[in-house]
Amino acid sequence: MISDVVAGAGFQLDAAPLLSRSTVDRRETLRDTPDGGAELWSAGRVVLVDARGRTQIGPDSRLVVHPAREFGERPAPNAVLLGAEGEISYWALRSEHDGAQDDWRDLRTGGGLLNDTDAGLFTTAVGLLGWHDSARYCAVCGAATTRVRAGWARRCTGCDREEYPRTDPAVICLVHDGADHVLLARQPVWPPERYSVLAGFVEAGESLEACVSREIAEEVGVAVADVRYLGSQPWPFPRSLMLGFAAIADRSAPLTPADGEIEDARWVHRDTVRAALKSEGGPVDGLRLPPGVSIAYRMIKGWATWND
């Protein structure tokens, strides 16, 4: 039975998830300008992203951006408008970069290095360009689609249907016992000793809270209570939005990891989690925490350090 004393039940994320940071105004009203954004383009900057979702990050931990005019006097046909800050507009283009340089990094390895402006630009660029790569044909009639609205929609050349960027909602939930233990699990494909909180995609016709209960039951076989929202983070791998929750479960209930999906699940004491946080990626008692760029890390740290 879940304890009536819910220690730490009010914990929050320790900080904003690193990929949720953004300062750029998306300028939705400017996506339909008659000149295709030519005025914005003239003073614009371009973020280049390769097919593996990587961009160039300089030694100052800033995105390497290029004057838009290097790519023509008008917006390049495949450019997408990320937004504007002051008088400067930001765009993204797919690059043919071959991966030879070490300063090209993806969001997992480079997102946490960036400031708020650059993190928002890079995250949006990866998600939006990835959607364009997979939306070249109409889902209704199969005809080719073209970019419209400064890259924020595609229009079918056959039936004239417009399609907009897709985001797949996924819940991620930190389950604790209301006292000093958190439930962590690992997938077999993860690096050795890596453990994290549980997550899964929202199904059609399902509420977020119902998805939390279903996913926890499916993955480790326990029931949860007191489901509450913590925060969210875009996770464009390829197009997820991670919606963070906390819930409470009975630590005496048997754990039944889902065959083929969860290699191991265990309750971990708060002191062990704190030690793993201090180790900065090293293992503690067979436990490595998820990388700091993930919302999972922010959730675990928020729980472990609550009321410190």
UniProtKB/TrEMBL annotation:
This is NAD(+) diphosphatase. Belongs to the Nudix hydrolase family. NudC subfamily. SUPFAM superfamilies: Nudix (SSF55811). CDD domains: NUDIX_NADH_pyrophosphatase_Nudt13. One of its GO terms (cellular component) is cytosol. InterPro entries: NAD-cap_RNA_hydrolase_NudC, NADH_PPase-like_N, NudC-like_C, NUDIX_hydrolase-like_dom_sf, NUDIX_hydrolase_CS, NUDIX_hydrolase_dom, Znr_NADH_PPase. It catalyses: a 5'-end NAD(+)-phospho-ribonucleoside in mRNA + H2O = a 5'-end phospho-adenosine-phospho-ribonucleoside in mRNA + beta-nicotinamide D-ribonucleotide + 2 H(+). Residues 165-290 form the Nudix hydrolase domain. Its EC number is 3.6.1.22. Pfam families: NUDIX, NUDIX-like, Zn_ribbon_NUD. The keyword Metal-binding applies. GO terms for biological process: NAD+ catabolic process; NADP+ catabolic process. It comes from the Bacteria. Keywords: Hydrolase, Magnesium, Metal-binding, NAD. The keyword Magnesium applies. GO terms for molecular function: metal ion binding; NADH pyrophosphatase activity. Its cofactor is Zn(2+); Mg(2+).
